[in-house]
Amino acid sequence: MRIRNKHRKSSAFHCNAGSRWSYLAIWSLTGFILIVYFYAHIHQNDKQDILVHLNHLVDTREMEKVEREEFHFSPPKDRRSPRAVKRKGPRKPSTIIREFLDASSQVHSFFFPSKKTAISLIKEGNDSMHFYPGRLWLDTDGNPIQAHGGGLLYDDNTETYYWYGENKDGRTYHAHQKSAARVDIIGVNCYSSKDLWTWTNEGIVLPGEETNVSHDLHKFNVLERPKVIYNGKTDKYVMWMHIDDVNYTKASVGVAVSDSARGPFTYLYSMRPHSCDSRDMTIFKDDNGEAYIIYSSNDNSELHVGPLTDDYLNVAGFMRRILVGRHREAPTLFKHQGIYYMITSGCSGWAPNKALAHAAESIMGPWETMGSPCVGGNRVLRSTTFFAQGTFVLPLRGLPGTFIFMADRWNPSELKDSRYVWLPLTIGGLADEPLDYNFGFPHWPKVSIYWHRRWRLPEGWRNEER
Ligand code: GAL
């Protein structure tokens, strides 16, 4: 009995042990298969990622080429009488920026080349689809594009890009002896395009006001940096812009609205956001549909950022002061992999200065300054943002991490002849020049804007499946 029991026990044991072993074997095999499967799958994903990355690299290689630029200019002739030279001494060598701004200097024509070199649809072959920063850019009617201080909107409804900007096609003059050059308000122009190179004039979508002097848009006032975003909830296109008086003391923002991306826009009102003065500004629509305004305030000494209401027609109650005491303006905002980025300029009116890149984990800050994003060209080009000032950054949907940096090369002697400087901007690699070093901060990826005399968008820039 005992033996039987023992036997039974032992046989039972053997039997159990056998089944446990086979369970173990089955589970081990399943585990092994799962591990192999996951490994293969992860590897497959890796391979796909690597493939996408390689494609991306091939696509963006041209854009990220570092191009050096050399220019030498002989100093201008001193046209003063020998007596004046003797009395006051030789004239101080003029800085390149002064030369750039002086309409009579040879440098000026180098940065504002004549119509002969214009980017035009009529030109075929090699020039087609190429961006030439600084050259005149003609629309489909053959007229110079008038969309300064502008921004782009990709409209999903019409699968079209719209470019809104200041129409400055008027006389440049100074309202007072010491005031900045200006052009009367003509209105906000809109251009449409499918390829970002061929632009059709859709006309003035928000006109200036000729007669009513108390209207914000009366021609003697200031309308700058218009930007448009689409509100999915209200199905409206909402435009925000800098509204000011001739002396820049009104320091407000204006809001206009339309049922269509092609306008016309109805002007609603102006306001001082959060009861603060506001000059250069932009708006930004986040992935979740929330929109924000960001503006230079406190006499341009700091920036303010705050959310808009759900209908985008007003500011919500709160804002944060950022980059306090930094004196930055011309903000442009963009986002990549959950991080917010911004390019700003210094405050020097129409004269170009050095751009800085900033990054933040939350749009409300804190924002960290990384240094100049400009790459290539030469020292002078980099320290003047390629003789331009940023106005908008457009993400290229098919090439994550790749953008177009849109800037204005202002021509204060003839504002209507201001040029566009569009250059590729990429995010990646370690920032080499963090200005605000803080142990608590992450290392942001570097933002780079590459100088090119001539460039084009790579294949796949609009491919949404990548
Ligand atoms: C710049 C500003 C422009 C315009 C200009 C007038 O600083 O970015 O939008 O306001 O000053 O001088």
From TrEMBL:
CDD domains: GH43_CtGH43-like
Mitochondrion recorded as keyword: no
GO molecular function: hydrolase activity, hydrolyzing O-glycosyl compounds
Keyword Nucleotidyltransferase: no
Disordered: annotated span: 68-92
Biased composition (Basic residues): 82-91
Taxonomy, superkingdom: Eukaryota
GO terms classed as biological process: carbohydrate metabolic process
Recorded family membership: Belongs to the glycosyl hydrolase 43 family.
UniProt keyword list: Glycosidase, Hydrolase, Membrane, Transmembrane, Transmembrane helix
Name the UniProt record assigns to this protein: Uncharacterized protein
Listed transmembrane segments: 21-40
Biased composition (Basic and acidic residues): 68-81
